[in-house]
């Protein structure tokens, strides 16, 4: 049985031109050396998406399932493949991670990372993500 902790995630995504802020309710659980945060997003124009954020000692991985499906993996100094699927089609993506900071104590704290993303071989931008996690 996994111990689940209800959490609130405050997510700020910045790509230089645009900042997106959202607060979502989720649940945190631990499996082995990894922490998982599962939450639901409902974005205008995109719809409902279930997101799983996996924090492990080696990397951060984001998996989204719903109207849009995607996978992104982040490891400092590495370029990792991923994908972005919509009803209109599939795009291959890559992320090159510059920095990762994980400051979590029993699932509460902050996760920050920065990366450059390419979609279908074209540079899509440089992104900064900042996620603050509190007990719900």
Which structural category fits the helices and strands? mainly beta
- Terminal-residue CA separation: 21 Å
* Domain count: 1
Shape assignment: globular
Strand order of the largest sheet: 1-2-3-4-5-6-7-8-9-10
Radius of gyration: 15 Å
**Averaging pLDDT over every residue, what do you get?**
92
Oligomer: single chain
| Element order: H for helix, E for strand | EEEEEEEEEE
Kindly provide the name of the CATH class.
Mainly Beta
Task: List low-pLDDT spans.
Answer: none
The third-level CATH topology is Lipocalin
Question: Number of helix segments?
Answer: 0
| Shape-level CATH architecture | Beta Barrel
**How many beta strands in the DSSP annotation?**
10
Largest sheet: 10 strands, antiparallel, barrel
Helix-residue proportion: under 10%
Descriptive overview:
The protein is mostly beta strands and 136 residues long. It has a single domain, classed as Beta Barrel (Lipocalin), CATH 2.40.128. Helix content is 0%, strand content 78%. The protein is built from no helices and 10 strands. It has a 10-stranded antiparallel beta barrel. Strand 6 and strand 7 form a beta hairpin. The model has no long low-confidence stretch (mean pLDDT 92).
Condensed summary:
With 136 residues, the chain is mainly β. It has strands at residues 5-14, 19-31, 34-43, 47-55, 60-66, 69-74, 79-86, 89-105, 108-119, 122-135. The chain has no helices and ten strands.
Map the helices and strands:
Layout: E1 5-14, E2 19-31, E3 34-43, E4 47-55, E5 60-66, E6 69-74, E7 79-86, E8 89-105, E9 108-119, E10 122-135
Antiparallel strand pairs: 1-2, 1-10, 2-3, 3-4, 4-5, 5-6, 6-7, 7-8, 8-9, 9-10
